[in-house]
Write a structure and sequence with these properties.
With 1214 residues, the chain is an all-beta fold. It is built from 3 helices and 86 strands.
Length: 1214
Amino acid sequence: MKREFLITIFFSFFIFLSNGVFSQTSISGIINSYTAVDSIFSTKDTILVTDASAFSANDTVMIYQVKGANPVIDTITNPYNFGSVRNTTELQMAGKYEIILVQEKIGNLIIFKAILNNEYDTDEFVQLIKIPSYKSARLEGELTCGSWDGTSGGILALMVSDTLFLDYDINVVGKGFLGGAPFESNGECSKADSAIYGSQYFSESATTVSAGFKGEGIARFNSLYRKGLGRWSNGGGGGNARFAGGGGGGNSGNGGYGGEEDTLTCVTTPAFEDSPNYDGYWNALGGSDGFGLGKQNLVNDSTIFFGGGGGAGTYSGLKTASFGGNGGGIVIIIARIIQSANDKIIANGETVSPIVTASGGGGGAGGSIVFDIETVIGNLTVSTKGGDGGWVEIYGNSGPGGGGGGGPVLWNNTRPDNVTLISTGGKPGNSDDRAPELFPHKAKSGSAGTETINIKVPLTGFLFNSITSNQQVCMGDVPELITGTEPRGGNGTFTFQWQYKKNISDSWIDTSVTTRDLQPVSLTDTTYYQRIVTSGSIDDYGNVVEIIVHDYVEGNTIYMPMDSVICVGNSVGEFLGTRVMLGGDPVSYQYIWEYSHDYTNWTQGTGGEDTVYAHGEIMDTTYIRRRVISGGCKDTASLYNPIIGLPKILNVIIPDQETCYGDSVLELSSDVLANGLGPGSYTFQWLKSVDELNWTDTIGAIDSILQPPPLFDTIYYKRIVYSDDCIDTSSAVTIEVLPLIQNNIIENNPPVFTCYNTNPEILIGSSPQGGRGAGTYIYQWQDSIANGEWTDITTDADGPDYSPGALIDTTFYRRNIISGACKDSSAFIKIGLWDLPEGAILGIVDSICTNTDHVINFLLQDTGEFPLNLYYSDGINSNNVALNVANPGALPYTVTPVTSDSVQVYIYTIDSILDSHGCRAVIKEGHDTIRVYGKPTIDAGFDDENCELTIQLNADLDFGTGSWTDTYASITDEQIHSPNATVNVDTAGIFKYYWDVDNVKCFTRDSVEIALYEKPFDQRVFHTDTITRAITVNPADNSILTLRQVSDIELKGTYKDSSDFEVITTWSIEEGSADPYGAFINDSVITFTNLDDELGNRVLVLWKVEKRECPDTTLMTSIKLDEIFEPNGFTPNGDGVNDYLIFNGIEKFPNNELIIYNRWGAEVFSQPNYSNENGWNGKNNSGNDLPEDTYFYVFTVDNDPGETRKGFIVLKRF
């Protein structure tokens, strides 16, 4: 039973469509009607609306829930999610819609033909929209929708079974959710209470808090959350504190943040952006982004949204702030074809304006566009762009608005290639004082919208099923293809069945065709067709198409006018035709008159009525026919005998002429003469005029050619040619008479002279008169050599003046002038020649040293005008030298060339010879070539000395060949030319060497003195004991002297030297102290007193030997004062000198023992507690003298610690 009910209502729906809806309709403005839905019955097929006056039975309507989402209001867990709609649970029924048919209207009750598929919550703004349906629709102006007013509006929806022609745009910009309003506050900075101004929301009644209103979105209304920076679903957040910007609204793309507060006034704004609770998502108090519903996949076949409104900020006093932008509306188009010529379908969010001094509002989000179509013809732009945020005047003084997010575009198929999609997010507002550079003060752009394909518009209880309109055909013709729309609705799977019948009262007969379209066969009777579409449980019977079949058209006859030969350009008489009464559609006959010049290509005439046709002018041989069209039948009646069009006479005579006063002119003859009846049929008449207004016959001039006489005034002629009924008058020929050319004069003063082969002065011509006048003169200069024939000059000779080239012969010149038909030649002028001066150098080749005189021998010929100036150059210096020459003949001239190079070639040549006439020589022969050698710059080196009998010399030269003058035979032959030769001598001395350098013609000498010697050798230091005798100290070992209880010492130094060069010796105390203390130079013997070893048991004495550059020789003597002096010999011979073995310093060590051994190790003498007062005198323990020999001693000191000294003693008696 349910299936039968659906079949019935669908049949009724398409009967309604076939009764007038399917003709092409012009539409513009608002085509939808809206009302709020107050309640929905539990049966889900009946609703109560606020005002049903615009709705009727069989209407197609859309039910849409605008709001109802429950956004996140938790600000503790993750404050960034505040205001978000993250899933269908939070979304609730917001955005749900479907399209359904109206069964009946009773008061404000609307009863549907089916049960609603979706659940709706009428407490949250549900509205009903009437959707018009058209067979074909054409925009005759911009198409839009009613704005969302808080209860209804904001949606444009239409259904077109065939083609929607977009001659204008579809525009629902800013028709969606409303933008927030700015709040007038006290202008408080966030630092006044950073805890409060970090809040996501404030109550509508919080009038003391500086916070702007949020933009409108799909969320349920709640006054507690109306203000503050947090988003409210896809509505942008409001700006907190002092003039922060509003956030952009969102749709499928999220909006952008608003700009930060006034940082010029609020210089210590709390760092909200860096708060760890917000993880960098905060934007310094600007309104948050309207939530992007597309990123949660909440946009689908049956769920679409208005663009969210942008949030607003605050203002105070005389400051101004902008509202948030409204979101874009919704467009739903169900059609077979959209045809566009670069048109647009626009659902952009609103861009905020104007520029303000406080907070900028956030841009509105783009709306939604849904397409259920088969194809698009032509280029189409689809836009759901987010609106731009509001601008502010001064950067830093307030926050611009964030950009709105882009909206979604949904397609039933893949978007066609000829459709351009723009769904970008809106740009943030800018600071006007920094434009065009972008300074948004942390405001952000919105995100792009989304694009979805393969969607199905939710049609509830019916299918979108339509076929093309009725046809009329002639008997036996094949009708056009009956095309049907792609069905919509149902379960998405469709089957087709076509049926037909011959009479409207007959039963339907199924065809074998099960495709979407039907091609009827050739028909002889009127036939009806219908398409049945089945989808699931729904059978949809489409509209009925009637194809009417008519009989053939009969009785179409036309008649030719009396005169059928017409000159081209003349009009032909009227053509007559019968009125058709038989065949076709008897109530509608269309008569079309056509003409052709070739009986193949036909053009519709403009002067035709049903039975009369006035063709007008004949332009060529012409055929005429009439076509009759009625009810798909066509018939053509033709005249097979054409109207003969005689071609117009082509009467063209030779063009205008010019002549000079009193000259003859050319005869006036035919340039072109043709057409009409052709040669032999022409007669002629000539007319003349002096003003081109009043014409008179030229008596006796009846031929095709006219020869005018010589003329003295301008005159005009024209010719009339007759041929049958064709007449043609030629254009007037002007014979203009010009005045003679005068004042053609060469103004230079004759005679003119110039130098041989030199350009003479410019020939100046006067300004002529006559001819055609100024600006028309053509000049041609001519020359003649030796008064011969005149010849045109071919180069640069077409001006009023002429500059002759270099002349080598006497030449005559004149100027010819042409102006129009007039010519004139000037009187000639003669240019004579002066001889040129000549000079030469009697050239030589020579070589000299720099700065040496050289004589150049010039020779001047007796030509040219003396005195003259001769200029010569040397090939080296850039400036030439001028000589004044009074008389011809030889001219010797001295020069002194110089060079600092090794060699430089001077080439003396004559550059120019200028005589008193200003003529320059052409013949300047000869040259002197002088090789000038530079004087070497040399240095034999610095005087030097060396502590050896050899040294390397260090001479220098810049060029040339050097050699040493060596009188000592100290340089080898191989090195005699080397600047760094090595000198070797046998004996010390001072040697002088000469460094001689030769550069061909130049010689230079320098000298150097060298001192060579050897260092001193065999240096020694001697010590003299003032009590006993002298002891030699070994210099190589820096000898150690051990002295006991000796307060003074005498030291003597010696050395050997092989030369007489000065040697310096120096004594100095290096450690310890003594008198004198210091350095003593050139003393070979020195006595030190008051020796003191306080610095370390010794006194260090340094003897240094110095000789000029030789390395110093030093001998260090260490004098130990606290140790026992160990002797090495004594002479116990009774002479009172060194008779006893003395150990100096043993007085401090009385506990000791001395043992003496002979060379075989036998003890010969021993004594405990040995002292110098009772010393050993060379006797053995028995008191006998020991023989001379070397003995060994062991001297033991018993102290702490004990010490033993061992050594040898040489015992000598004599």
